[in-house]
Amino acid sequence: MKYNPRVTSSRRKCRKAHFSAPSSVRRVLMSAPLSNDLRTKYNARSIPVRKDDEVQVVRGTYKGREGKVVQVYRRKWVIHIERITREKVNGQTVNVGVNPSKVVVMKLKLDKDREAKGRGGDKKGKFSVEDVAAGGSLQEID
Question: Whole-angstrom Cα distance, residue 127 to residue 66?
């Protein structure tokens, strides 16, 4: 069911918005899930991929391969990972594009902008883990 009247649910319009999205919007759309330890540390499920992040491929031909992100190719909706290459007929090696949703971020490249986000200190839900562990009914918490 549609909740926001300003957003269309038309397949045609959604596809047009997706494929003609500007680079700034593609950055957010090209997010990758975080590994379990990073998920608890940064209190986020996924994060936009950037160059120099370390990722592991979890789907497809290159499943299980790890490497550093060499390039985020927003125009083609793929990321290039070091050591995931193939050889062309003429002998030249080229990077193979991998969909960012098919990788897991194992290590983040932290710069001042990413650290400034302060994801570690943010509380995501209404209750902390301690509140839930303490038990009690929901009426007591209210």
Answer: 36
